[in-house]
Amino acid sequence: MKSNITKINVVGIGGAGCNIINGFAGKIKNINTIAIDTDIISLNLCKAGEKILSGNSFLEGKGSGGKPEIGKSAVKDSEIEIKNAINDSGIVVIVAGFGGGTGSGAFSIVAKIAKELGILTIVIFTRPLRNEEKHKFEIMLDAVNKLSENTDASLCIDNEKLINIFTNVVSLNIAYNYINDYVRSFIECISRMVNSNNTIIIDLNDLQDIFENPSKLSFGSGKSLSKEGPLIAYERAIKNEFFDDSIENATSIIVFISGDKKLRLDYISIIEGLIMRRGNENAIFYHVLNTEENEGFTVSIIAVREN
Ligand SMILES: Nc1nc2c(ncn2[C@@H]2O[C@H](COP(=O)(O)OP(=O)(O)OP(=O)(O)O)[C@@H](O)[C@H]2O)c(=O)[nH]1
Ligand SMILES: [Mg+2]
Known about the structure:
- By secondary structure, the chain is of the alpha/beta class.
- The chain folds into two domains: 8-192, Tubulin/FtsZ, GTPase domain (Rossmann fold, 3-Layer(aba) Sandwich), CATH 3.40.50; 217-306, CATH 3.30.1330.20.
- The chain contains 13 helices and ten strands.
- The protein has helices at 14-22, 40-45, 56-59, 68-76, 79-86, 102-116, 134-145, 147-150, 161-166, 172-195, 204-210, 229-239, 265-278; strands at 8-13, 31-37, 50-53, 91-97, 120-127, 153-158, 215-224, 252-258, 284-290, 297-306.
- A ten-stranded mixed sheet has the order 3-2-1-4-5-6-7-10-8-9, sandwiched between helices.
- It is globular, with a radius of gyration of 19 Å.
- The site of guanosine-5'-triphosphate has 25 residues, from helix 1, helix 6 and helix 10.
- Magnesium ion binds next to helix 1.
């Protein structure tokens, strides 16, 4: 019997991509993780289910040296391996830190392979901290300009926001973990939307329609265990530091509310009313409901606008 599970492959590229997928590799249902890097040390530390070392014949596992054109040609050498790894996916989510050589140079190769296979392709990328070298910004902007070529939707995470969240007193690693958790919640949301036994559903075809034109995403998610949990979870989602509140300009808004069997109808309609009022009146509204949570409530919002 053919399974109707949409297989989701998350592909981390370069140092940041590998670190970010370490936050959830093996921990989310129906998700496979694949790491691609030119740097053998980064790849060895990565917990992805599958690992691809690119450009080894000329880089000897030493990385791209910050050069996107090297990262790109290295990963081109691995095209067949990449194709085999993602072939059976319904959705590919590429994760990379823009600003270095491997992720910024190679993401477009992986996106092109995925699109040619007819796979829905989402790119999650980070922007460098403001105190990083100027040329990293230029590399990042070049990569951003290539996003619409082979990407259905992209989600930008500005590393600089960590400075306000942590007021500088924590290690970079702890701050980066915050982003790993955020990416994990996004992947979990996509996976649960298309693969859970939801009361009101959204499927891969709906996502394909929503992302008909290359789209920019804004995402926020919140959880709460309390009685008024759905409302608190909504507030947390909307106030998420990485949710850039572009909801006013969104052409589509997806809201995913999950809770236990006692999930109250009045809470659902309050939340949906609040979101609709914030959004543009012409925005298409999609809602997904799940009542199979063991405890607590989650509200996730994805605002979609054209790239
Ligand atoms: N959120 C997050 N951002 C990171 C992390 N590591 C690096 N970055 C960001 O990503 C940018 C690119 O760095 P890397 O991912 O290390 O670069 P790369 O793609 O491996 O490229 P090369 O090492 O130059 O071949 C950096 O300038 C940082 O802004 C991480 O673990 N988490
Ligand atoms: Mg690297």
